[in-house]
Design the sequence.
C-alpha cells in the first residue's frame, strides 16, 4: 500500500520557502521531540521512534492515518486524489478497514464523498486522531523506554571524548 512505504521514511516537512520546518530550530533529537507532538512529527527519526512505541501499544494506525492525511493534502489531480482518498478510506475508515482508526462514529465519511475528493476532506478526522495522540499516546511516549533509551544514547554521544574534542577544536577555531 502506498502510504505504508511512504511513512517508513516520511519526507521532511518544509516551510513555505522549502526550508526544514521547526518551531524549535536549535533543538535536536529527543530535546526537540519533547517540546511538542508537532515537533516530533516534523522529524523523520522522531516519527520512526513514535511508530515503534505505538506499535507496542497496538495503535500505530493513528500515526499512519495522520501521515497519510498529510501526504493526501499534497496530492495533485482529481484521479490521484480519488485513488488516495479511497485507499485511506479502505485502510483506516471503512468498517472493513485493515488498520481502522477509532474516530467518532457520526463523523465517519460515507463512500460517496470519495467521488469528489478535496485536500481537506479528512481534516476533521485527522484532527481527532492528532488530539488522541497528543493527549494520550504522546505523554506516555515521553516516559517510554524507547524515548528514554534514545535520549540516553544521544547524551552519551554528546559526552563522548570524540564529541568533546571536536567541540574544543571548534571553540579554538572560533575564539582565536
Sequence:
Amino acid at each position: 500500500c502506498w502510504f505504508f512505504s511512504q511513512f517508513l521514511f516520511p519526507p521532511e516537512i518544509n516551510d513555505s520557502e522549502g526550508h526544514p520546518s521547526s518551531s524549535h530550530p536549535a533543538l535536536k533529537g529527543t530535546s526537540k521531540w519533547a517540546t511538542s507532538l508537532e515537533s516530533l512529527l516534523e522529524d523523520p527519526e522522531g516519527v520512526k521512534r513514535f511508530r515503534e512505541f505505538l506499535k507496542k501499544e497496538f495503535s500505530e494506525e493513528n500515526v499512519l492515518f495522520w501521515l497519510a492525511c498529510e501526504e493526501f493534502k499534497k496530492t495533485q489531480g482529481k484521479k490521484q486524489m480519488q485513488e488516495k482518498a479511497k485507499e485511506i478510506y479502505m485502510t483506516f475508515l471503512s468498517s472493513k478497514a485493515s488498520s481502522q482508526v477509532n474516530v467518532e462514529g457520526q463523523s465517519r465519511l460515507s463512500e460517496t464523498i470519495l467521488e469528489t475528493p478535496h485536500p481537506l476532506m479528512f481534516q476533521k478526522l485527522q484532527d481527532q486522531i492528532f488530539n488522541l495522540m497528543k493527549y494520550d499516546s504522546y505523554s506516555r511516549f515521553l516516559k517510554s523506554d524507547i524515548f528514554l533509551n534514545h535520549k540516553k544514547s544521544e547524551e552519551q554521544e554528546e559526552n563522548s571524548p570524540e564529541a568533546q574534542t571536536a567541540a574544543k577544536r571548534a571553540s579554538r577555531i572560533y575564539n582565536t
Summary: The radius of gyration is 19 Å. Residues 123-143 form the longest helix (21 residues).
